[in-house]
Amino acid sequence: MATQWGLCGAGKISHDFSVAMKTLPAEDHQIAAIASRSNEHAKEFAKKHSIPKVYGSYEELARDPDIDIVYLGVLHTEHWRVGLLFLKARKNVLCEKPFAMNSRQVKELVEAAKENNVFLMEAIWSRCFPVHAEVRKLLAEEAVGEVKLVKAYFGSPQLHIPRSVEKELGGGALLDIGVYCLQFVLMVFNGERPDSIQASGVLLDSGVDESVVVVMKFSRKRMALCAFSIAARFQNDAVISGTKGSIKVLGPMHCPTTLVVNDKKTEYPLPEPCLPLNFTNSTGLRYEAEEVRQCLLKGFKESPRMPLADSVLLTEIMDEIRKQVGVVFSQDRK
Length: 334
What we know:
The protein is of the alpha/beta class and 334 residues long. It has 10 helices and 14 strands. Residues 5-121 form the Gfo/Idh/MocA-like oxidoreductase N-terminal domain.
């Protein structure tokens, strides 16, 4: 039986997700419904992507008994509220990153998933890419000896995009793109909590972070360095340096197709999209969709590739970075 998906939100990421789905077998994945607060938007979206059911409210989607899993593609300021709506309606949820605005909200989502015995995953799509699977395999084999330093960089000029710069829309480099650098470090160090975090950054006039550098120390004298910015263009690569060599994930490190291990390069090409995409390499969203399907078939309530404990730790680290850099959202006061 095909996994029946319900899309929540008819924005840019939901478009790319729908295009990515077309690269997967129809007997495995079907987008059965689209919900948007604007019925017109939903209808338009459904027409473009041939989706049979259209809902003008999220509540209607939550009540649809035929939906196996909801893909939450709304703005992250809404993730907590809308996520709770679906979890309490006993719906499995794949929630776009960042999971929520702070660790308190993330813990409430995780708690709601457990209480209602449903699947929940933060859509850190990077973890589902073949390149990341290969990195995990190499690390398990100690292919570069003992890892001493992990570096991850992500810089993308997007000061012209309101959701990137406005505080009310959850703007800033950290929540939008820094999350990818930090999750990479946590993946390499197996979800271990860092012993120390030192962050320094510069803010925009709106009070959100424009550029941030983070240094983390882990046990056994291991370190990580992350830099991210919404003002400058970086190479967007990630490097794992060990006592016997290095693993380099070439940019874009958050949706990579090229891996270099001790100067040996391997390509992992993506399928071509059937419609123009909004974001880089978005047909790679197919990997997380398939990961979700496999988890549901096995009866898992979370993904081993992006466990909920990793999501909680990731958000706790982001909370600490914001505290050090001086970014406060209205959600932090509640």
